[in-house]
């Protein structure tokens, strides 16, 4: 009789990247036990077509965990072989610094501490962010040629976050970056002091794009976190202005999910940057128009000559490619944009 497939616990299943992470594990024949914050969120998962097959097959189980930072996690963790922790606040500046710090750090530490008492757990992947490295207070043009590697940390500290004006438009990124840095440092300290039986890998992606599987209707895009609202704005009408002309690093969420899987399955520890390259919104809309001429009236035209990156920093993702075996597997800009445009229809 064949053995049952291994199970991974995934936090925050209703999130954009968590959705693609769960799909990565399912594609590799794992089962998924995923947490959501409320019964209403659990019902939302059941309404999404992307999960229909896996719920019917019994390969996706959803559990309600109202408080990852202080709650009991036995129902989520018992018997699983891996954990992918992705739940964290983003875009909620009204919570203030403490509203970012507490759930980001406490949620991660609570998972690590309770996982230590579950002998079946062999690997944990944790979502950090490029914000844990990036110097958001220095203009990109002044970082021209700077190379970000896993050895770099953001200069943001708790002191900076406490002193920052919560009314400033950058407050969200200051709080988010500082919280992610502190959470990563807390994870490193936990591993050093507790020497758990499982591996711990942290991942620091930049802007993440992929099809929108985590929402029921397009009307929900504006209320979601991360890149979906930004991408949707590029299809707001041919004559609308581009939201931004600056360059940015990016990665496909499907590659992030694959990286999470490989670290858990391979019991790989370490800090990893995951990035497919550099672009700007003019490059995106130019490529989108090539891919989907039928959407021409919706895709912002911009100025075709503005597709040069200009002064910018870069991410070196060599480590994630070599250690995790992702060499040549990062999805191309073509695949990502085609998936995004298709996900919007």
TrEMBL record:
Record keyword RNA-binding present: no
Ranges for domain NAD-dependent epimerase/dehydratase: 8-265
Domain of life: Eukaryota
Pfam short name (any one): Epimerase
Keywords tagged on the record: Oxidoreductase
GO function terms (MF aspect): oxidoreductase activity, acting on the CH-OH group of donors, NAD or NADP as acceptor
Family: Belongs to the NAD(P)-dependent epimerase/dehydratase family. Dihydroflavonol-4-reductase subfamily.
Name of the protein this chain belongs to: NAD-dependent epimerase/dehydratase domain-containing protein
Species of origin: Cryptococcus amylolentus CBS 6039
